[in-house]
C-alpha cells in the first residue's frame, strides 16, 4: 500500500518535500534593505526604507499618530485560466 509520502510531484519531489528556497539579500539598490525570495517558480521582492522623520501625513497628530507605516504592492493578477494541479 502506498502512502502520500510515496507520491511524486510533476517536478520529481515527494509529496512531503518542500521546494528549495533561495534568499538573496541586498537585491535592490533602490531601498535601504531588500531581499529577493525565490521558491519554485515564485519570486517575491521585499524592500524596506527608513526615514528618521515623521511622515508628512502624520505631522501634527500628536502621540496618537504612529511613525511606522507599511505598503504592499502586488504584481499583475493571476489569469483566470490558470491550471489547477
Can you walk me through this structure?
The protein has strands spanning 21-25, 33-39, 42-48. The protein is mainly β and 85 residues long. It has a domain at 19-50. A three-stranded antiparallel sheet has the order 1-2-3, with no helix packed on it.
Give a brief outline of the structure.
This protein has 85 residues and is mainly β.
Would you spell out the secondary-structure blueprint of this structure?
Elements: E1 21-25, E2 33-39, E3 42-48
Antiparallel strand pairs: 1-2, 2-3
User: How far apart, in Å, are the first and last alpha carbons?
Assistant: 23 Å
Give the biggest beta sheet: 3 strands, antiparallel
The percentage helix is under 10%
Note the overall shape. Answer: elongated
Number of helices: 0
Beta-strand proportion: 15-25%
Segments where pLDDT lies below 50 for 5+ residues?
Answer: none
Number of strand segments: 3
Sequence of strands across the biggest β-sheet: 1-2-3
Please describe the structure with a list of short key phrases separated by commas or semicolons:
85 residues, 0% helix
Amino acid at each position: 500500500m502506498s502512502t502520500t509520502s510515496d507520491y511524486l510531484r510533476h517536478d520529481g519531489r515527494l509529496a512531503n518535500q518542500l521546494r528549495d528556497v533561495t534568499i538573496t539579500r541586498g537585491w535592490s539598490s533602490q531601498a535601504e534593505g531588500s531581499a529577493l525570495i525565490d521558491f519554485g517558480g515564485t519570486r517575491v521582492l521585499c524592500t524596506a526604507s527608513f526615514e528618521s522623520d515623521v511622515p508628512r501625513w502624520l505631522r501634527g497628530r500628536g502621540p496618537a499618530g504612529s511613525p511606522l507605516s507599511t505598503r504592499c504592492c502586488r504584481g499583475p493578477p493571476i489569469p483566470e485560466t490558470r491550471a489547477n494541479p
